[in-house]
Amino acid sequence: MESIHEKEQEQGREAEIGQQPTTIRRKLGLIVNPIAGMGGSVGLKGTDGIDTLRKAIQLGATPTAPRRAVEALRELSPLRDSIELVTYPHDMGEEECKECGFNPVVIGYVERGKTSAADTKRAAEEMLLREVDLLLFTGGDGTARNIHEAVGQRLPVIGVPAGVKIHSSVFAINPRTAGQLAIAYLRGEVRLREAEVMDVDEEAFRQDRVSARLHGYLKIPYDAQLVQSVKVGSALDEDESMQAIAWEIVESMRDECLYIIGPGTTAKAVMKALHLEYTLLGVDVVQKKRLIVKDANEARLLELIEDGEAKIIVSVIGGQGYVFGRGNQQISSRVIRKVGKDNIVIVATESKMAALKGMPLLVDTGDREVDEMLKGYCRVVTGYRRSAVYRIA
Amino acid sequence: MSESKMRRYHAHVWEEPIIMQMGSEGERGIAIPITEKEIRETVGSAQSYIPAGMSRRRAAALPQISQPHVLRHYLRLSQQTLGMALNIDIGMGTCTMKYSPQVNEELVRLPQFTDLHPFQDEDTVQGILQIMYEFSRMMCEISGMDEFTFQPGGGAHGIYTNACMIRKYHALNGELNQRDEIISTIFSHPADAACPATAGFKVVSLYPDPETGLPGLEALKAAVSKRTAGLMITNPEDTGIFNPMIDEFVDIVHEAGGLCAYDQANSNALFGIARAKDAGFDMCHFNIHKAFSSPHGCMGPACGAVGTRKELADYLPVPIVTFDGARYHLDYNRKNSIGKVRCFFGNVETILRAYAWVIGMGPDGLREVSETSIINTNYMIKKILSVRGVTMAYPKQTTRLDQVRFSLETLREDTGVTTNDVARRMIDFGVQEYFTSHHPWIVPEPFLPEPCDTYSKEDIDYWVEVIRHVCEEAYRNPETVKTAPHNHAIAKINIRDLDDPDKYAMTWRAYMRKSKSRGGKQR
Prior knowledge:
The structure holds two protein chains of two kinds. Chain A is α/β, with parallel strands linked by helices. Chain A is 33% helix and 22% strand. Chain A has 15 helices and 16 strands. Chain A has a seven-stranded mixed sheet. A five-stranded parallel sheet of chain A has the order 3-2-1-4-5, sandwiched between helices. Chain A has a two-stranded antiparallel sheet with strand order 6-7. In chain A, a hairpin with a 2-residue loop joins strand 15 (376-383) and strand 16 (386-392). In chain A, helix 4 packs across helix 8, helix 6 packs across helix 7 (141-151) and helix 10 crosses helix 11 (265-273). The N and C termini of chain A lie far apart (59 Å). Chain B is built from 15 helices and twelve strands.
């Protein structure tokens, strides 16, 4: 009865918004892994491990990470007087800050030229204790892993790319963008999302075998404007999009079918929708909407799919668009072969699809025949009752 | 290259409150005299005529405000807008911001038109029925289709009407349970996905090839199946790129047993050049309020004209205006009709304006509209590509039709200034902010201008100069651009709140509730 005047006053929101104070965050942490990237310039595919570093230096490698950090910091110079920078000594951040005219709070102790992964971890832990609002770190996948081990999802971070291996999606596309994103976050203009921390086994990588693993998720500021404009409609945010995908999958589930749920937040949204326990980085198996096996390995999967119908639900892992062979090696070529191409369901949000910039999805199962079988056009579930046809190459 | 001088612009700033915050208890626009005793005694009180079940228990929370204050309020609000007739509205790609001839406004205000009532017997409205019938004939010639309805109140409504006809077609064939998928492309207007979804279909989207910007035939072949109900597609897509394989697309979907609906909202570059029927489409829709010069409205006062091949004409909403050689009729006798999609006959005033516009143009004039629109687009491309920081999406497609999608990714990487920043800064030079593009942003940092036939060379030159000025400023002084607009009625707002369910409010009541629950001050 009282809805007559409800259509009025859409303008209420405009007056409203003008009054909202934006969140001001002012404490920024900076960690530079000064040796990151050194292996790359001399063809060493990474700089993890002290022997490799020694070898890199012998081959004439020079540090690149400090310069990349400076590039990012320069973007922050408009905030020079309004933010507090917390960093580690020498080339782990102090020198870079000073070069850009910042007067940082320097914590911890390291010996110049002798820093290691342990220092990165310790620095990140101390940043957490000092309650920085955001941690900017310069390095590669190895550095991202160290940061992840130290702070998990307790602290938002932005990666300034400087390493040889950049498979993780926690990095900005370049140092300047990292700086700009940091400003946007400190000004309260962007939200957070989970981003994959991936790393390949460098030893295998040097022998030209790629075996990347998904190590977990860090929280990164996310500029939603890259994929959507708030003004043009009711675009869903990442969590809602994943939920919509999960509903689509759950609704299509049949009792006689076994569901192999791969790693990653998008695929695991299905487990969340079913209120089941799950392993974020592992493979879980579901039937009749109940958990059959948590964190299954290849042997267990093969055993389970011996007879009967099965489907594989996989996320697109990392920024490069891998469907198989990066972080979900349990779902091996043998498992894929047994389940069959038609029973593979790829799930990805529209923003993840947009981030591919037209590049095809990739597979690397270690079995050429299976890779060939998977190539061509496939369906990707992108939302509730929404899908896309996309190429695997 | 001509140098257009930057215009100094400043909007009225009235800091106008919301009307619900204005006035005072008992204030009135009109003091209605008390009913005379004799009348009251004869007919009773006005309230006694309201059925008990419909009577409010509490009075509606309407503003109480005097006439001069109401007038002042709305005039001030109108001064704070930068409307289409006030500026060079090239930035609104996909919208075809075309001049609406003022003489046609006189036409729709004639009492012979405004005094018409939809309940009149068809014998007494032969004149307007003749106009509707003749306009439908014109639309048939323009599109190649056989019959038209003007009932839908806007473009998306027209697309929805097509989705409903596709649904009915498969239902009558007993295949609706099996055929539950509509195929579209990610660069088609989002309504080509949203409307069939609303009609109950699942939607399958094709992504563009990174080189050509067009969806591929192979992708389409992989998408069709016995579940395919139809194809709903825009062409040229919202990139201004025309898909030259469109007839093959239609064939593939037909072979799979689906119907094909052509979203012709982007038709401004196709008059006399390409027709829906000739590409094999079963149905199409046009936005009469875009390419046909009737003004844009917001969600309702427009017209999405829907046309079909004669085999599907039976599915159109009723009534259809027909002519028996002597008289015009409202034909309700369509056995497969999806029914009504709107009250009465649609927004007839848009048809009247468009009828006048098409008569005025004639066939050659219509083709000239499209040629001018294409020339304008390509002239503008040439000029804009000399601006630092701007690139064109899919540069290998050198020719664009009605519009073109650019990217400011380079500008953003170089300066941190985003496309939304540039759009807002443009307002400071007296042009409305531009439309970036629909989501998802497959093209990063996009903008999508459409310099349709309305705009002169000088208009385009000025608009491009504004883009150039703002982009150069982004390199010199990014903060000025990021904090824009500086000269408009409302400064930069925090758009994050616009999609925050705890903050946005579509009604005054929602606003009061949400600001209260946040502990905000009630004014």
